[in-house]
Structure formats: C-alpha cells, structure tokens
Amino acid sequence: MDKFPKPYAEIRKQLDAGKLTCVEIVNGYLDRIKAFNADYNAFLEVYDKEAIELAKQIDIKLSKGIAGKLAGLVVGIKDLLCYENHHSSAGSKILDSFKSTFNATVVQRLLDEDAIIIGRQNCDEFGMGSTNENSAFGPVLNFKDKNKVSGGSSGGSAVAVQADLCQVSLGTDTGGSVRMPASFCGISGLKPTYGKVSRWGLIAYASSFDTIGPMAKNVEDIALVLGVIAGEDGQDSTLFEKKVKYTRTNKIAYIKEVVEHKSLQKEIREAFFLQIEKLKQMGYEVEAVDFPYLEQLLPTYYVLTTAEASSNLSRFDGVKFGYRTSHPKGLMEMYKKSRAEGFGEEVKRRIMIGTFVLSADYYDAFYTKAQKVRRLIKDFTDEMLNSYDFVISPTTSTTAYSIGEKTLDPIQMFLGDLFTVQANVTGLPALSIPMGEDASQMPMGFQIMGKAFDEELILNLGKNLVND
Ligand code: GLN
What we know:
It is a single chain. The protein is an alpha/beta fold. Helix content is 41%, strand content 15%. It has 16 helices and 13 strands. The site of glutamine has 14 residues, from strand 6.
C-alpha cells in the first residue's frame, strides 16, 4: 500500500507508463476497506463492483491516451452529496431510503475527469456536529486511536483518507467540518471561498455557509481536485469568480485572543509558535493582531445556521421523500411523527432553536442582530486581510476527544468550532494541514485562512509548510 499516499501526479506517471492499472489501485483500496471499514465505520456504502467496472473502462482509455485529468483517482464522497441512482442519506434516518435522481455538480465533474468514486462516507446528521457521533449510522472512530472521535461532521471522509481507504475525499464545511476532522486525523482539508464550488446537489444545512471541499494526505491532490470541481455551472446563483489582483505584503497575522485562549492545549500552542518560526525563516513577517469579535463568532454562527437549517429541513415532512411514520392518524400526525422519528436529537434541537430565532417576537433580537454582527465580523476580517496575506491559527484548540466525552454538553461541543467558524461567517477560504502530534500521539492541525478566491496562494503555503 505504500504507493497510495503519494500524490496523484506520481500515481498518474505510473499509470501512463503502464506500470500500474486502475484495477490494481481499486483492488488495493477495496482490500483495505475490507480489512478496516467494519471497525472504523468510515464508509456507509462501498461501490465495489461499480468501481472495478469503471477502473476497467478507464484503463482502456489510458491505453488509448484519452483518459481524463483524474483517471484512476480513487475518491470517497460524503453522504451529503447527490450521486445519480445512489443512496444519499445525510447521515439521517429520515433519508435512509432516498436515492438521488441526479449528480451533484462536484460528482459530475469528478466522473467527467475519470475519477473513480468508491463509496459514500459517514457523517454527522445533515452535517450538524463536530465528532461524527450524531450520525444515525454510528460514530466513526479515529484510525490513530479507536477510543477517540474522528472529528466532524466529515468524519468518515477524514478517516477514509487517514486509513488509506481512498486517495481523496469530498467533505463539506459549514463551520469547520472539513478542517476539524482533517486536524483530528492528521490529514489536510480545504474549505474553499464561498461561491467557488457549486452547491448544486449538496443536501443543504445552512445555505449561506455551506461549502464543499477536498480532503487528502497531500496538499497537491487538494489543489488538483479543487481545480476540477470549482467554477460556474449555471445551477448555483451564488457562484462567482473574483479576478482582482491582490498586492502581496509577505505579512502574516495571527489573532492574539486565539493563542491566549484558555481552551488552547499547551502542546498545540507550542507547535503553533514553532510554525511561526518556520514562517519567519521562510521570509514572512508574522505579527499578532487583536480581533475583538472572538466571543461573538460562535453565537453568530449558531443563530444564523440554525435559522437556515430550520428552513432548509422543513422539506423533510414524510411526504416528498424519505422516512414516513407507519399508521398515522391523520395528516398532522403523519408530519409530526415522521419528523419526530426521522430526525436525531441534535437536528431536532437545531430546528427548534432556528424556528425560535426566526419567530415574529424574537426575529429582530436574534436573527437580525446576528446578521449585523456577521457583517461586522466580515468587514473587520477583510480589513485585516488588507494588511496581511494570511491569518493563521491552530485548527482546533485540542486534539481529538474521547468517544462520548462531549456528547452530553452541546455548548462544550460547539466550542470546538471556535477557530474554524470565522472562515464560514466571512465566506473566506481556509486550509488545515497537519502540525505534528501531541504527547499522546494524536494529530494537531494548523489553519491558514486567506483572501477571497486566494486558494492558490494558501495551498502553496500549505504545501511548502508540510514539505518543509
Ligand atoms: N461543528 C459545526 C456544526 O455542528 C460545523 C458543522 C459543519 O461544518 N458542517 O455546525
């Protein structure tokens, strides 16, 4: 298996030279899935026969020299993405039997470039969670230590890469769900700029925050996949491409309140300062800045995302698709029981909070206020990025928790998103890369946030830091 964690470009050279075939690659991953998936629960479904069939066809294309850019790249997709004639359940009982009739734009683009989709990956229900313990299909365990969580909500996607069950995963990030599990599992993950990758075919959680991003062991693979999935598709009206040329300052900021935060694990703080030293040696000026809104980030995020979720999830009513209660007495009971039985606890909690903050009496006090604070945070962050090329931080304040450690205390669980949500509240791109391990050998993560549509610069810095 040692060949698989290599960047795809190296695998491609072997494929083009006829030294390796797609069928061999797929069989290699299927063997590992067979060996590990039952224990770690990363994939909810594996498309084994299909993947081999596809691999055979792509091997023929390769031999004719007509294969796409991602020929033989083995990808897993989060259970929130639609794949025609395949189940997509959003980690929820309410969509357990749902099959999509169309492809998400990202899925279509992967297929068009001859990537091989090997399966559907476990996640927190509708992307709501930070540990993958909110999946209706059981938690995903961390491949480094089975007693630890994978992180969430793209936990299955992270562990699948961590355990070499696929080369790249597509996760989704509404508040940190690509970066946080990437950090907990010692891999890399990118949350692109909001508006760069189409959300068509992504089962919505909070539409003004949701993004789709690649996760991989190599930053090079993330850049490659981003290049394929990004861009206008005529389906998502929030897509745009900003073509301004930024002036580079060669300066990097970190937020003082972040490194001073009481929740920050000592080893993570130390590793973070070592990264700063590395950056200085690379020629950057690194400075501490004040960010007065750190305490406002999570309330803003949770008021707005629950509001959007309560609206988005109203479509799951037992009528149009998914789970329906058996033998209801009348229409109202059918709605109520289908939703009560179909959704999990966390999703129900968020629907109720979201409905409350949108209700006539509280709308201005919560929803409107949170929108205003979102604007303040965005303006302040954009201002910061006028003077700096990047804002860096640890991805998370601690390494992976033990299974069950935070499940009884939702506020503690929400705190885990403290460093990641700024990028979602502002729509900016952010990458998490590995930053070594703590004393108990659990991975730590380093986050690089940048200007809108500046993914290339962020990925280059990430690559240089990882390869240094
Ligand atoms: N942990 C955050 C939440 O529960 C982020 C989720 C996400 O990015 N999908 O909302």
